[in-house]
Amino acid sequence: MDLSVRFLGTSASRPTVERNVTSLAVRRGGETFLFDCGEGTQRQMMRYGVSFNVGEIFFTHMHADHILGVTGLVRTMALQGRTDPMTLFGPPKSERLLRQAVTLGSDKQHFPINYVEMTPGEPLVRQGYSIVPFSVDHGGAAALGLAIIELPRLGRFNPDLAREMGIPEGPLWGQIHKGQAVTLPDGRVVHPSELVGPTRSGRKLVFTGDARPSETTIEIAVGADILIHEATFADEEAPLAIETGHSTAREAATVADRARVKRLVLTHISSRYSRDVQELAAEAREVFPGAVVARDGMELVIPFDDADTLEG
Questions:
Q1: pLDDT of 177-212, one tens digit each?
Q2: Considering 39, 126, 207, 233, which has the largest number of Cβ atoms within 10 A of its Cβ?
Q3: Measured between alpha carbons, how far is 239 from 125 in angstroms, rounded to an integer?
């Protein structure tokens, strides 16, 4: 099952020549959904080959640079004849603003849109994974981070040993792999532990949205395959980061280091660093070597632990 993220916008507050405002496309298997939808997101989707067949958009908070793109995106979908429903998820008390954004300039509802206000800590359970909203500190705004957490996978089945044991290939293999003991025609009982290895972990992706560093983020990000953390400022603007409810690159790296994540990607970059992010990258790498600063269009493929590739 593939899992990847495409950065559609990596700028803070306003677009720049190099960077659009915040949006992240997540693809898992045949599903595509968005985390935030800043102004111009639909153009970024076309530019970077992200399908408009999006069924869900998750908003971390209701600041304009994270929601204004939904107006145009929904209107374009309507012009293309969309009839499938869409669900917009937001933090508590977000429905009114999302409805206003969707209906701006048009009172006609072209396809069904549902609105769901998420509760921090209450997972949205899906087939094989959950999307977990968690509280973050963004200067008093009702703001959430989002984590995609997959269920553990079955251990590896040993087909060569199964053949050596005389177990016919077919339904019995499937039963054993799923943890069921089976009785063979000759009376032997085969237990899963004889042929199936230990359970393997699923993948975890954590996206903070706009946020100060927090214990809540560290707790949910422990062992994550990728932490996508905002890093609006460098050290020189640390007081401004506190004042505006944002993080510095060094602070984001400290979160990643304490959570022992496998990979850190920095986003939501202030316009003052839009062209040259070396200062941000250098400060983050002093704490978390290998940290990278996202750019618009970057795609990351998140493999399983036992896969061979890391980035596409």
A1: 788 888 888 888 888 888 777 777 899 999 999 999
A2: 233
A3: 39
The predicted-structure confidence for 275-308, as pLDDT tens digits, reads as follows: 999 999 999 999 999 999 999 999 999 998 765 3
β-bridge partners, 133? 146
Q: Which one, of 50, 41, 32, 246, lies nearest residue 137 by Cα?
A: 246
The whole-angstrom separation of Cα 170 and Cα 71 is: 52
pTM of the predicted protein model: 0.88
**Residue in 36, 65, 210, 296 annotated catalytic:** 65
Spell out the long-range contacts of 282-288 with Cβ–Cβ below 8 A and sequence spacing 24 or more. 283/234, 283/235, 283/248, 283/249, 283/250, 283/253, 284/231, 284/249, 284/250, 284/252, 284/253, 285/253, 286/250, 286/253, 287/250, 287/253, 287/254, 287/256, 287/257, 288/253, 288/254, 288/256, 288/257, 288/264
User: Which domains are delineated in the chain?
Assistant: 3-153+200-301 (3.60.15.10), 159-194 (no CATH)
Which among 17, 10, 76 has a CA at the least distance from the CA of 43?
A: 76
